[in-house]
């Protein structure tokens, strides 16, 4: 894509449809920065003068422009790759942890569902209501694990999932505050809130890294502030 942009500056055919190139530049922070820096360098070269005599820029600007912006572009690309890789690894680890947590919850329901077909409790330790809650909790954790796995595979999906997780965290946090005031909070409840917050952060990180945004650009994007 950078070669196509350089060819455009030289007035040469790039082999790509101009609308496709423009659409890619509009959605890619790295290529957009490359194009802006290339334009700036091209303008400087067009006004180069030596000893008071105007000097025309070389006909082929590709090598000069790429040499001027390629080091910075490579640095940004490397930083983006590192950030995206770390976010993907964290998302995968969280997904595995959530699957393990869901399995534990399901296994814990074994002694809580000892009831007959007509609903009669067969054991004094049976708690069907608690078992149902744990099954629902396991289902939520499995859903989050699948979402994290998909986001790690395709980071662009993280943007749609992050608001859902953040809303779930905010809703549960409200009840946790109430329980703290009443002195009824538990370690499992706090662990659940911490896990949800971490999932939301990793999803936002994945979404930003997938778009090539640095922390400052990501914050401006989330806060709807102009660049």
From TrEMBL:
Pfam families the record matches: zf-HC2 (PF13490)
Residues spanning the signal sequence: none
Coiled coil: none
Cited InterPro entries: Znf_put (IPR027383)
Transmembrane residue ranges: 81-107, 160-178, 190-210
Keywords: Membrane, Transmembrane, Transmembrane helix
Segments forming domain Putative zinc-finger: 2-31
Protein name: Putative zinc-finger domain-containing protein
Organism: Corynebacterium maris DSM 45190
Source organism phylogeny: Bacteria, Bacillati, Actinomycetota, Actinomycetes, Mycobacteriales
């Amino acid at each position: 894509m950078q070669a196509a942009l350089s060819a455009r500056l030289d007035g040469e055919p790039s082999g790509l449809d101009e609308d496709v190139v423009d659409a890619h530049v509009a959605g890619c922070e790295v290529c957009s920065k490359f194009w802006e820096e290339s334009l700036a360098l091209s303008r400087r070269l067009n006004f180069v003068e030596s000893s008071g005599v105007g000097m025309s820029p070389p006909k082929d600007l590709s090598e000069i422009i790429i040499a001027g912006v390629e080091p910075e572009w490579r640095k940004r690309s490397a930083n983006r790759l590192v950030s995206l890789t770390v976010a993907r690894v964290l998302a995968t680890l969280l997904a595995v942890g959530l699957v393990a947590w869901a399995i534990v919850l399901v296994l814990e329901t074994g002694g809580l569902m000892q009831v007959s077909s007509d609903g009669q409790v067969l054991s004094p330790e049976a708690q069907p209501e608690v078992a149902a809650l744990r099954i629902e909790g396991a289902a939520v954790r499995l859903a989050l694990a699948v979402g994290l796995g998909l986001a790690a595979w395709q980071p662009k999906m993280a943007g749609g999932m992050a608001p859902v997780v953040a809303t779930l965290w905010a809703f549960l946090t409200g009840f946790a505050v109430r329980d703290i005031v009443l002195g009824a909070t538990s370690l499992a409840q706090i662990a659940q809130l911490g896990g949800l917050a971490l999932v939301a952060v990793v999803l936002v990180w994945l979404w930003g890294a997938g778009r090539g945004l640095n922390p400052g650009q990501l914050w401006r994007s989330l806060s709807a502030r102009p660049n």
